[in-house]
Every structure is written in C-alpha cells, then in structure tokens.
Amino acid sequence: MSDSTLGNSTASSNGLLATRSGAKPSKQAARRAFWRTLALVRPHRRKMVLGLVLGVGVALAYAGTLGGMLPVLKVITDADRSLHDALLGIPAEGAEPAAETEWYTPYLKHFAPLFPAGNTPADRMQTLLTLVAILVGLNALGNAFRVLSQYLILNASHRMMMDLRRRMYRKALRVPMVDLTGDVSNRVNQFLSDTREIFLGVTTLFGKVAREPLKAICVLVVALVLDARLTLVVLAIAPIAVGLLWYFGRKVRKATVKLLEGYGIMLGGLEETLQGIDTVKGYGREGYERRRMWRIERGMLRQLLRLAWIEALASPLIEVIGVIATVAGIVWLASRTFHGEIAPSVFMTMVGLLAAMLDPVRKIANVYNMVQRAGGASTRVWEFLDQPEEQSSPGAQRLIDTTPRAVRFENLTFRYTPTQEPPALCDVTLDVQPGECIAIVGPNGSGKSTLVKTLPRLLEPDAGEVTVDSVPVRDLSLRNLRMQIAVVSQRPVIFARSVFDNIAYGKDGATLDEVRAAARHAFASDFIEQWPDGYDTPLGEFGTSVSGGQRQRIAIARAFLKPASILIFDEATSEIDAESERKIHAALNELRQGKTTFLIAHRHTVMDMAERIVVMDAGRIVDFGTHAELIERCPLYIALYRSPAAQ
Fold it and tell me: Which residues contact 488 (CB under 8 A, 6 or more apart)?
C-alpha cells in the first residue's frame, strides 16, 4: 500500500448508496463510460492499430474477390472478344469502338498482358484459370490478414483488460473500508461478469468493425462503380436499419445492467450460504436457502431471456429488410437485363454484390448489441473506479522509530450512515500514555471496535480528531501510520496460503528463522512443527483447516513479526478452549511489552492485564479507571465483570 490520501468518505458513501439505489445509467453515461474504457487501449495501440489495418486488408480482399467475379463471368458468357481485348478497349469484330466513359477504364489496360490475346477455347480456359488463381490467391491473402488481425486485436484487448482489472484491484485496496464492507460480492462480480462483458464488447468492436463495416463499404464501392443508381436505391434501407439498431441497443443496455446487478446478488447469496453452511444445516434451512437462490435465479433468467430475445430478433429483422430490398433490386436488374440495358455478366455480379452486403450488415447488428452491453458494464465499473481513495495529506509527516506512542482521541463522533442515531461514537475523548495498556469494555454495539478503527484510519470520524504523539493522524503518512500498528482482529484473517506466508505477512522479506521465532513467542510452534509439512503447510480458505485457537496464535505470531509501536487486540476467545486461551494470553502479555496497547476485552484474564479500563456504552465513555476503582463505582462495569461471558 502506498502513501495516498484519504478522500472524503461521506461523499464516497453517498456515491455507493446511489449506486445501490437502483438508478439506471443513461445512454450518454454508458457511452462516456465505454469511451473511457476504450482509452485503456492506448498503451497497446500499436497492436490494435496494426490489427485494424490488417482488417482493412481483409475487407479489400473480400471486395476484390467479389468484384473479380465480373471478369470471370465475362469470360464465360462473352464469346465475341477476349478479356485481353476488353481490357485494352478493343471492340469485338464488327462492333463500333466503345468510348472510355468510366474513370477506372484506363487503369485496366495495365492488366491486359496477364491474359492471352486470342479468343479460342484454349485461350479462354487459360484466361479463366488465371482469373481463378488470382481470386484464390486474393482470398488466401485476405484470410491470412484475418488471422493476424484477430490475434493482434485479441492480444491488445487481453492486455487492456489486465490493465483494467489491475486498476480495479488497486481501487479495491484503496477505497475507504466503509465503502467496501458489505459490498464485496458486487465487487467480485465486477471483476468477473462486468469485465467479461467489456472484453466481449471491445473485441467485437475492434474485431468486427475492422472487418464487417469495411467489407460492406468496399462491396458498396464496387457496386456503385458497376451500377450507382441501383445501389443508391438499395441503400434506402439504411435509415430503417439504423433506427432498429438504436432501438434494440437501448433495450440491450438496460437489460445488461439489470443482469449484472443480478449476478452480484447471486454471488452474495451463494457466498453467504456457503460460509454459513453449518448454521444452514444446523437449523434445517436447506429448503429455504434453495428457494431463495431459485428466486434470484428466476430474476436473472428473466433478464437473460430478455437479452436472448432482443439479440435473436435484431439481426434476423434487419436481414429480412435487407433481403426485401435486395430482391427488389434484383427484379429491377432483371428487367433491365431483359431489355438489353446491361449484360448478363453485370447482372450476375450485381446480384452477388447485393447479397454479399447483407452478411456484414447482419453482423454489424450484433456488434452494436455487444457494444451496448459493454457500455452498461463500463458504467458500473467506472462508478467504482471514480470513488475517492484513501490518501495522505500533502507533506505528510512520518513516525521514525518504534518507541511507544502517546495516543489521544478528542471529541470523536462517527456515524456509519448519515441518519444513524445514536451515533456509533458520540463526543469520545480519551488520553493514552506512551506504553500504557488500556482495556476497552462494554456491551455489544457500544463502539469499542469502532473507536480503535479510527486510529489506523480505517474509519474517518465525522467530527473530532485522533493524534499520535500530538500529531493528528490526518497529517501522518498513511502507510507509515499503519506500519506502526499491529492488529489482532476479532476474527483473525488467515489467507489460503502456507503457514510461513501467513506469519511472514507481518514483515516484508521475513526469513524462516524470524517466522519460527515469532511462532514460538505466540505458542504457535507447538502445533505447526507437528504437521508433516511444518511451515509449508497450506491453510484452507479463511483458516477453515485450523481451530479457532490456532488461528488466533498464527495471527499473534504475525503481529510479533511486525515492528510496531502500537498494538490493537480485539479479543475473541468464545470458541477457544482453556489451554489455548491461556497460551494466547501469555503470548499477548509478551507481545504488548514496549507498545501502547488497546485491548478490547471480554474476559477477566484480559481485563487484568490492563493498567486502566475504559467502559463504553451507546458510543460514549461512561467511566474509566483501574479495576479496583470501577468495581467500586461503575454499575455497568460490575455487570460486565460478573457476566458469564467474562468468566
């Protein structure tokens, strides 16, 4: 984590609430988001541009192959003169010389030497074979261009998506914790489903836009050259096709946003059920959870079927309109052919060209739908990427050594939501001396964990400030501040990695000897070194392969390894046996030496370590003092101390 600064958490929260409120992005917002996504192609633009240029080659080869059918048909149907003579403008025997009225006619003369000058059957066959060889070569060249174009575009797109996911991961690590808590499934869904939709949109856009529209344009140019009047009449369907694309694209974008939101809900429900599977089974709620997931799936199915219907309908509808226009053009062409206005070879070539324009147009409809889906996904991704990040203030100060620190909480007020009453913290003031061990006790929801989370700036207070050695934490380097604090949380985080990696997480570049020493101090070596793989033993996800006491001791070993001056221990020993608890408290007693320590206490054994005890209730400090003082005057402390949970 680098030094960057804490943005306005309230603004960020409001943005998150707006995202969750169900407001749908406008077409303009989706378009802007997609353009921002496309800007990520810039570092890989050489590959993408080369892929697009090769795509132009594919389109030109496609049009050239189709246009090359005209001389082939002329060779087959025109027995009066050779192709060599036709290219040179030499009229057939007994015919009047033809005027060169077309702009391209002079250029065709250069190709005449490729073909025999005679017009015998053998000469005509040789001409036909030459033309076919040229067309096959042109087609092979076009397909070679297509292979390279597709590879380069996919290469650039994959790299772009890697950059996007890296940005998203960086953002997830840097947004204020309050903006991420409770929204993890939605973020995971953005990494999976949203980025997939964006990838498909980008590759479809660059892949097919480099080919299909250009193919249609190149074929259109050839058709215009042969018969401009007919081609322009057929083009009258363009406004209808564009209107249909716009209509269906809008429907696709809205359905995609709802579908992606549904994926987030489904992932959240699945994660919640699997993590709490013991509770689900213990209460016999398998049927209830199955029905709940079924309802979520039904909602997603509705959106999937809506998308399927739109995408299934759009392309065929546009194709039908194109076929109708093409058939009308063919009828007109046939009429002109019957009256001798155009040659049969031109008629057949124009029919082929009109039919060839349909396929690219049909594929363009799919391109537009995919781009609309990517636009909806891009909107969700950029809403997340635009959230304010944690940052250090300009010219932030640093804490140099690891000596015990003086900590002061001054008039702190904090709400998790703008309307929370009473606040989670309400006008809390507390002074802690360097090296002092403070126990914070109180009923559940009294604000104990919230208070200590303001120290490493995991939460930003709405009012008041926290100081370390008289320096406001807002003026300290965020990274440096957090490196000074070792935290053993209420639910110790164990990563699905080896024991060594979990303990070494507390210190960059930790050696095996250092990890072993930390484990011994935390009484974790007792069980680690009994395992066959020792410190290389892989631990299950969330530490499910070890007991609660073992998780705690591994977490304490991690804290031992961290060179910190402040210790925060959020006790959670309800699921731990007496022997494990004894060892944890012994390790904790050693770990706190030389550190300013905050103990969120529930048990006598932890309370008794503290030099002072702070009693909290409803977000306020109601009393503080030694155990002897509080047992004499504080009814809440007496009740907490004598409760079964404290025994």
Answer: 552, 555, 556, 559, 567, 568, 569, 570, 588
